[in-house]
Specification:
single chain; 532 residues; mainly alpha; Clc chloride channel; CBS domain Like; 21 helices; globular
Length: 532
């Protein structure tokens, strides 16, 4: 067995080991999601209905006194600010950028207290009327569970990352009963790779979380939509582009508002601990206009996606929810972005759908949801699968894809970064969302080996452990050079030294990749004959 084959075998064994560890992480992630949803229900019932209950309800279900709507979010923001200052600043924000930052800069290490403070602060923020979602906090909480377990084991940073993401994806899957979307979210936003060593454990964790969810929260879709057996026509598919363009515009405006609000709060001459309370005042003011914009709002999303929403509700949610979510999120409070995006996107689609041909109830709201997710999150595949898993409206897959991809394309052209990556960039980190094959993987040592006498003499001076074969990739050669702090490696074939590969030779693959990306030529020409 060649050294590289042995290395692959060891990686496969480690992959299976991490997958086994990820399974209880998935169960714990599902339990964390259940606890968070119950906490949100508890705080909402206590603050708005004066009763001790944990069922998930929304503010605005009955007429509340004006001072209650205005002041309860302020009190919630004040509590969150105190928790962040004296507990952990890591609970600030909507969860996903914090998880990404932990992966990028802290070796996927999350403090244990974050696993407690994040869901509690999110429950306070959302339960007191904050227009946020539970998914961002559960991403951080589930990730903390996976990270804490990994920190007690003898693992690499990459393996800790896998377990952190496994916990995050498990929480997402359990919250929305959306295993495929949770896995795609992990790939598009958190893993920074598509490889068996990470994908298999994440899938194992998500599968367990989805199974555990059934007895805790049910096994049906969150927002079931009856398509009445209707399959969208080609004309309807074409009109999905209109929803995509509209979704992109909302995504651009909402993202711009979030970071203008963040800049505005940063200029205030007071400590950031007080910012969430000011954000709460914005929320309360919006709640006076449209109380149903407060809280998670799953009931409103359901009304939008099933075609039961009135025009007043559609317009109120589209305007008020967008403003209070964007502006209050900039205050650094605790809460997620997906549920608000679902509501805003659904309202947008329903609004545009007022002048569109009828397909089935909630069809255009369905497309609007996918479009705004694709535009705001820059995760078009996640937006598509999330929409379809939440509603089970699989017959609408093509127009949903068109809407999401259109919004994504315009968002990429209009904004340098998404609502998630902008926050990472502001912390001085560089983050790319592009996935491509490493050019060093497409070249072998035999393609660039130097075989002249001087090179062979140089190769013979290299230690035995730094010897490679002609079929080893340049990526493997780069790792060997880095590990042994060398600028060249010997190439041996059938126990005979055939030459050497130098560090500078690795640029051959990079130049080839650059050429393919930048050089334009015509590879097929049509010859037109001339008479005479």
């Amino acid at each position: 067995m060649r050294a590289t084959d042995l290395g692959d075998f060891r990686v496969d064994r480690r992959m299976l080991l991490i997958a086994l560890i990820a399974m209880p992480v998935g169960a714990l992630g599902a339990a964390a999601a259940w606890v968070l949803l119950r906490l949100i229900g508890l705080v909402t019932n206590l603050c708005f209905y004066g009763r001790f209950a944990t069922d998930l309800v929304a503010p605005g279900g009955v007429a509340h006194p004006w001072y209650q709507i205005l002041l309860v979010p302020v009190a919630g923001g004040l509590i969150v600010g105190v928790m962040a200052r004296y507990g952990s600043e890591k609970i600030r924000g909507h969860g996903m950028p914090e998880a990404i930052e932990s992966i990028l800069t802290r070796g996927s290490v999350v403090e244990p207290k974050v696993a407690v403070l994040k869901p509690v602060s999110a429950a306070v923020s959302i339960g007191t009327g904050g227009p946020f979602g539970a998914e961002g906090p559960i991403i951080m909480t589930g990730g903390a569970v996976g990270s804490i377990l990994a920190q007690h084991l003898h693992l690499t940073a990459d393996e800790r990352k896998t377990l952190l993401v496994a916990g995050s994806a498990a929480g997402m899957a359990a919250t929305f009963n959306s295993p495929l979307a949770a896995i795609l979210l992990a790939v598009e936003l958190l893993l920074f790779e598509w490889s068996p060593r990470s994908l298999v454990p994440v899938c194992a964790s998500v599968a367990v979380a989805t199974i555990v969810r059934a007895p805790l929260l049910g096994s049906g879709p969150i927002f079931p939509v009856d398509t009445h057996g209707v399959v969208p026509t080609a004309g309807v598919d074409a009109l999905a582009v209109v929803i995509g363009v509209s979704g992109a515009l909302v995504a651009v405006v909402a993202t711009w508002l979030v970071y203008r609000a963040e800049d505005g709060f940063a200029r205030l001459p007071i400590h950031w601990m007080w910012w969430p309370a000011i954000g709460g005042l914005i929320i309360g003011a919006g709640g006076l206009i449209e109380p149903r914009a407060l809280g998670v709002g799953y009931n409103v999303i359901d009304d939008l996606l099933t075609g039961r929403a009135t025009t007043d509700l559609i317009v109120g949610i589209l305007v008020v929810k967008t403003l209070i979510w964007s502006l209050s999120l900039g205050s650094g409070t605790s809460g997620g972005v997906l549920a608000p995006i679902f509501m805003i996107g659904g309202a947008l689609g329903a609004a545009v759908g007022l002048v569109m041909p009828g397909v089935f109830p909630g069809f255009w709201a369905l497309l609007g949801l996918a479009a705004v997710v694709g535009g705001v999150m820059r995760s078009p595949l996640t937006g598509v699968v999330f929409t379809l898993e939440l509603t089970q409206a699989w017959s609408a897959a093509l127009p949903v894809l068109i809407a999401s991809a259109t919004a994504y394309a315009i968002s990429v052209l209009a904004l340098r970064r998404s609502v998630l990556t902008e926050k990472i960039a502001r912390r001085g980190l560089h983050l790319t969302r592009d996935y491509s094959t490493d050019p060093l993987e497409t070249f072998f040592c035999r393609d660039i080996v130097h075989t002249d006498p001087d090179s062979i003499a140089l190769a013979q001076s290299v230690p035995a452990e730094c010897v490679l074969g002609p079929r080893d990739t340049l990526r493997h050669a780069a790792y060997v050079m880095a590990e042994n702090q060398l600028d060249h490696v010997a190439i041996v074939d059938d126990d005979s030294v055939v030459g050497v590969v130098r560090l500078s030779d690795l640029l051959v693959a990079r130049r080839h990749d650059l050429t393919e990306a930048t050089v334009r030529d015509r590879t097929l020409r049509f010859m037109v004959g001339r008479n005479g």
